Amino acid sequence: MNTFYLDTETTGLHPATDELVEIAVVDDAGNIVLDTLLRPAESTAWPDAQRIHGISPDDVAMAPTREDVLPELLALVTGARLVIYNADFDLGFLPEVATAADQVSCCMLDFAEHIGDWNDYRWHKLDSAANYVGFHWPGSKHRAAADALACRAVWQYLRRQDDQP
C-alpha cells in the first residue's frame, strides 16, 4: 500500500465558513507529488491566517480551485494510507479524501502517545514534533509542502521507534 502525507493551509479554522488556500502531498520517499495554491470560492480576505502562513488573496487570485484539484488528489490517495498531522482538521476541509484513502492515520495522535502527553485541549504543534525528531525545515513552516515533509519525518521517526525491541 502506498503511503502519502498531506497538509493544507486554510483561510481559518472552521470548515463550515473557511476554505483551503494551499494543499500538498508528499510520497513515502519524500517526493512532493502535489503542491498547489488554491483559490477560495467565497473568501476574499483572511488576515489572521495570512499572518501565519503568509498566503495572500493576491497569491491565490489565479490559482486553481479546490474542485479543480480534487480529482488529481483523489486519484493519488485512493487505496493508499494517508498520514496527516491533525487529521481531523484537514479532513474537515477534504472529507472526500477520508473516503478515498484505504487508511487514514493521525500523526499528531501517534506523536502524543509516543511522548506520553495526551491532552484533548492542547496538542503538540507540528513544528514542536518535527523539532523533536530532528527535522530540518526545507522552507517556511506553515506552508503545505514543508509541513507535509515534516509530517513524514515525524511519522517515519515514530515507525522506527515501533520497530525497536
TrEMBL record:
CDD domains: DEDDh (cd06127). SUPFAM superfamilies: Ribonuclease H-like. Keywords: Exonuclease, Hydrolase, Nuclease. GO terms for biological process: DNA metabolic process. Residues 2-164 form the Exonuclease domain. One of its GO terms (molecular function) is 3'-5' exonuclease activity. Gene3D superfamilies: Ribonuclease H-like superfamily/Ribonuclease H (3.30.420.10). Signal peptide: none annotated. This is 3'-5' exonuclease.
